[in-house]
Design a protein that fits this description.
- A hairpin with a 2-residue loop joins strand 2 and strand 3.
- The protein has about 270 residues and is of the alpha+beta class.
- Among the domains are: about 100 residues, Alpha-Beta Plaits (2-Layer Sandwich); about 60 residues.
- A 5-stranded mixed sheet has the order 2-3-5-1-4.
- The radius of gyration is 40 Å and the shape is flat.
């Protein structure tokens, strides 16, 4: 009997191993089928170019034309500004670029700038994960919509007192406003993910490049220091001068009075 049980156990053991193995494989297969949600990132690209003052406007316009050539569904000009005159000119071009093309388009913009003799002094790419914010907003919208449906059902069936019906109508209006605000915010968030913000800044390079900039800065600092010293001297003279003149005048008057007294006594 014991031998039969042992034989039965030995016969069952391989089957259990096979079942456990197949179970593990099935579990691994189910894990591999779990959909992976990629993070929803909103990218911000910041590039800076330094070149001769007279070449800033043509390069800025060239970059704007490259954006328009992609079409409004791939690139849009948000703003274009240029300030300064002569040797001190600063420009900025802000673009909204489709996220899947943003990095490639930034490479083309940098190449176009370098071909025109510009120096790239800034190239930054940052991303903000909007996944949680988008999921939370969508969940809030679903919750508000469910609440609105319940309130609408109360109004349709007319179940409840007059006061309850009035409160239900007010609740529907308030919930609709919350839904509209949440949907607008959700649309803005998805827009930030779909289109990356790109800022291109342009600044003038002084003749001589970086060699003369420290010297100009030193002369500017000396001028500022001298100005402060002169201003301090003028302020000191304005405050101390009248006091000195007053003391000197009092001494002269006192001496004259002393002389007059001595002559009278004599």
């Amino acid at each position: 009997m014991e031998m039969a049980e042992a034989a039965a156990d030995s016969a069952v053991a391989p089957a259990e191993k096979d079942n456990s193995a197949s179970g593990e494989q099935g579990a691994l297969g189910s894990l591999s089928e779990i959909p992976v949600t990629l993070p929803k990132l909103a990218f911000v690209l910041d590039y800076g170019f330094r070149l001769k003052p007279k070449e800033i406007a043509p390069l800025q316009q060239k970059h704007a034309d490259m954006c328009e050539a992609l079409g409004p569904y791939q690139c849009q000009i948000v703003s274009l500004t240029r300030t300064g005159e002569e040797d001190e000119i600063y420009g900025e071009l802000q673009l909204a670029v489709a996220s899947e093309k943003a990095r490639g388009f930034a490479t083309l913009l940098s190449a176009a700038a370098e071909s025109d003799g510009a120096e790239t002094f800034k190239a930054n790419i940052t991303g903000e994960d909007m996944s949680k914010s988008i999921v939370d907003t969508e969940a809030r919208i679903r919750g508000r919509v469910a609440l609105r449906d319940r309130l609408m059902e109360v109004l349709k069936t007319r179940k409840g007192t007059v006061q309850q019906l009035v409160e239900a109508e007010r609740g529907v209006a308030a919930v609709n406003e919350e839904i509209d605000q949440a949907q607008s915010w959700l649309k803005e968030q998805k827009g930030r993910v779909a289109f990356s913000r790109m800022t291109l800044s342009y600044e003038s390079a002084t003749p001589g490049g970086s060699f003369l900039k420290p010297i100009e800065g030193a002369f500017g600092a000396i001028g500022s220091i001298l100005g402060v010293l002169v201003a301090g001297i003028i302020l000191m003279l304005a405050v101390v001068g009248p006091l000195v003149l007053g003391v000197f005048g009092v001494k002269r008057v006192s001496r004259r009075l002393s002389r007059d007294t001595a002559v009278t006594e004599a």
